[in-house]
Design brief:
- The complex is a heterodimer of chains A (333) and B (342).
- Chain A is mostly helical and 333 residues long.
- Chain A has one domain: Orthogonal Bundle (ABC transporter involved in vitamin B12 uptake, BtuC), CATH 1.10.3470.
- Chain A is built from 14 helices and 2 strands; from the N terminus they run H-H-H-H-H-H-E-H-H-H-H-H-E-H-H-H.
- Chain A has a two-stranded antiparallel sheet with strand order 1-2.
- In chain A, helix 5 packs antiparallel against helix 11.
- The radius of gyration of chain A is 21 Å and the shape is globular.
- Chain A starts with 6 loop residues before the first helix and ends in an 8-residue tail after the last helix.
- The N terminus of chain A is likely disordered.
- Chain B is an all-alpha fold.
- Chain B has 14 helices and 2 strands.
- Chain B has a two-stranded antiparallel sheet with strand order 1-2.
- The N terminus of chain B is likely disordered.
- The chains are: A mainly alpha (333), B mainly alpha (342).
Chain lengths: 333, 342
């Protein structure tokens, strides 16, 4: 109803606003505490949000196509548990990693098949698999923790690129972010996601293979969750069934704050990356300034609400002004 | 945003006979599954049907079933209220701290406070969704964070314990009439009241109208915004009441009380046949959904399923229930529009 009529332009505005807010947050952060704008702190900051950032990439694709995947955090837990079990059973690490990634892809495939073959709403399916995959994580590992991962691998999780302050997982994230951005914004596949998200029926009539595309999206989402599970496990050097509980809400909050419409068809990778870092920077700066944790939770929630409320109110003001100025372009959709 | 409704929303709103018959059939099939489950479990472990274990089951299910009532109102309108868990946690703590500061507070006042605070939090959600045009998923995900953050800020590491509560209040969960705990009776009363309301009152029917087809509802003269606002206020108020009951049931409440209950609540509603696509569902069905999930949980314990497998089995059954339910609904819907395209 109050969706702005010029999505492209208003989207650019939103991205600019997010990136502007990132700069403002950096400036305020540096004023709040002298340790904020230092290499070690920024390194720590980005390292802490790498799993959210990774999953947010594929979640962007999924939400642009007007679907949702709530099972990502449970997939992280399940894959982390498998990695732990395999390592504890003395499997060679490359094999264990491969199996972990395969399990993630399989989890995504299962979601995707239920959504595309049975035509179930993804919200319902992934609420179900959220419970199922977390349950399987406990079935695999119980309440044990596997922690004796070899230093070579854990170093990849929390180590820095030699000679810099850049955490190694952030490099992986940067590469994947570029790939995702190119795929979404510069390939026919990416454009087809917008078409499907904006109007699935029209996309179908236009000859797009909606089912196959969605299936692929869920597989990618599962695969990325598995990769995030590997990063998480090595970063904390701990495989546990309850790893990353509740992470799905943080990911979705970042994606929506980044300007992706929950109804599909709108959004960009840049906006989402900006939002992930905006939340991370604000939380880090407030923590350095000794602001209690509960305020951080409140700020995250408010940001999420304002990210939609703000543009909505702006659009309402704009349309009422346009209506007054010119009546040539009435309200034709 | 309405174009995503696509085919199944094009179903004509006429044909109540078929619709009610379908609903009745879905509730009947749920009851059947329930009976088979209870029968098998009781045959394998006779203690499953002991008075004590039934009482525990009823108390556990009651609080979820109560929150499901409010969630159903919201789901019927094609919205969702994720913030119920935070509302429950916040009101549980606030009503408890009322007893701490005023040890002689009359018990009904604590209930009124819980309901009032819940309603107030519901107003926030309702205004955001109805007038701010923020999608319910986004708005209530946001307030889930905000309300929980406020909860943590107020609780500040403290906690309410049973010793802070007057005896008259705690008996609400321990006392019983004919073996049925007061708490369960109260929840049943609320469920019946809202069942009648949704079924037989004009404004109750409006929830279905809004969820089935917003545009048609507007044309029919329904004040959609007001209906949506009311739905969220009721959902908040009911979650607030559930918070007070949670306090009475468990006695101990900290800042994390009720975390994650929103997924259980939505799962129960969906299993009970409340469509997340709006316009379809009943309180009775949603209540049976909550009962079914509760029975599955305690049956797994009674059957001594390996502890770490229980959650996985529960998840698989939940997924199965959701799939079967939606497939049946789709088949029925297709039968209804047999003559039109597709």
């Amino acid at each position: 109803m109050s969706v702005p009529q010029k999505p492209a332009r208003s989207l650019l505005g939103w991205e600019a606003a997010i990136l502007g807010l990132v700069v403002v947050a950096l400036l305020i952060g540096s004023r709040l505490h002298e340790a904020f704008l230092t290499g070690p702190n920024l390194s720590n900051l980005s390292s802490n949000l790498v799993e959210i950032a990774l999953i947010a990439l594929t979640m962007t694709l999924v939400v642009v196509a007007a679907e949702i995947d709530l099972s990502v955090a449970s997939t992280v837990g399940m894959c982390s548990a498998l990695l732990g079990v395999l390592w504890a059973a003395h499997a060679p690490m490359p094999l264990a990693l491969l199996a972990t990634l395969a399990l993630g892809a399989l989890a995504g495939l299962f979601n995707g098949l239920l959504v595309t073959r049975l035509g179930l709403p993804s919200l319902a399916v992934t609420i179900g698999t959220l419970a199922l995959y977390r349950g399987l994580a406990y079935a695999l590992l119980g309440d044990r923790a596997v922690a004796d991962f070899p230093p070579f691998w854990t170093n990849l999780g929390f180590g820095l690129v030699p000679g810099t302050q850049i955490p190694i997982p952030i490099v992986a994230f940067a590469v994947l972010a570029v790939i995702t951005a190119v795929v979404l914004h510069a390939t026919p596949f990416g454009r087809s996601l917008y078409a499907i998200g904006a109007n699935e029926l029209a996309a179908r009539f236009a000859g797009l293979r909606v089912e196959r595309t969605k299936l692929l999206l869920f597989v990618l989402s599962g695969l990325m969750s598995a990769f995030a599970a590997v990063v998480y496990t090595f970063r904390f050097s701990s495989a546990r069934a309850d790893n990353a509980v509740g992470l799905e809400l943080a990911v979705i909050a970042a994606v929506l704050l980044g300007g992706v419409s929950i109804f599909g068809g709108r959004g960009s990778v840049i906006g989402v990356i900006g939002a992930v870092f905006l939340i991370g920077i604000i939380q880090n700066a407030l923590t350095l300034a000794d602001v209690p944790n509960e305020i951080l939770t409140i700020v995250t929630g408010l940001l999420l609400i304002l990210s939609v409320l703000g543009p909505n109110l702006a659009a309402r003001v704009r349309t009422s002004r346009e209506r007054r100025v010119a009546r040539s372009k009435g309200g034709a959709p | 945003m309405t174009e995503r409704l696509s085919s199944n929303a094009a179903t004509p709103p006429t044909g109540p006979n078929l619709l009610t018959r379908l609903l009745r059939a879905r509730e009947a099939s749920l009851v059947l599954i329930l009976l088979v489950l209870v029968g098998t479990t009781a045959a394998l472990n006779s203690r499953f049907l002991s008075a004590q274990s039934l009482r525990d089951l009823a108390l556990n299910v009651a609080i979820v079933a109560l929150v499901v009532v409010g969630q159903t109102l919201v789901l019927l309108m094609k919205h969702v209220d994720l913030s119920v868990s935070s509302v429950l946690g916040l009101t549980a703590f606030l009503s408890g701290s009322l007893f701490v500061t005023h040890p002689n507070l009359p018990v009904p006042l604590a209930f009124l406070a819980g309901i009032g605070i819940g309603a107030l939090l519901g107003v926030v959600n309702g205004l955001l969704v109805a007038y701010g045009k923020v999608p319910a998923l986004v708005a209530t995900l946001g307030t889930l964070y905000v309300f929980r953050g406020v909860d943590y800020a107020i609780v500040h590491g403290g906690q309410i314990t049973a010793s802070n509560l007057p005896a008259a209040f705690s008996t609400f969960a321990s006392g019983a009439v004919l073996g049925v705990p007061f708490l369960v009776l109260l929840v049943l009363a609320v469920m019946i009241a809202f069942s009648v309301y949704l079924r037989s009152y004009r404004s109750g029917r409006e929830y279905y109208a809004v969820g089935s087809n917003v545009d048609a509802a507007v044309l029919a003269g329904i004040d959609v915004n007001r209906r949506v606002l009311t739905g969220f206020v009721l959902s908040g108020a009911i979650a607030g009441l559930a918070g007070v009951l949670y306090l009475a049931r468990f006695g101990t409440v900290d800042a994390a009380a009720g975390s994650g209950i929103e997924l259980q609540v939505i799962a129960a509603a969906v299993v009970g046949g409340v469509a997340i696509t709006g316009g379809v569902g009943t309180i009775a069905g949603a209540g049976i959904g909550a009962l079914l999930l509760g029975v599955i949980g305690s049956a797994l314990v009674a059957l001594r399923a390996p502890a770490f497998w229980q959650q996985a089995i529960q998840g698989a059954l939940l997924l199965l229930a959701i799939s079967v339910d939606i497939i049946l609904a789709k088949r029925a819907a297709r039968a209804m529009q047999e003559r039109s395209h597709r």
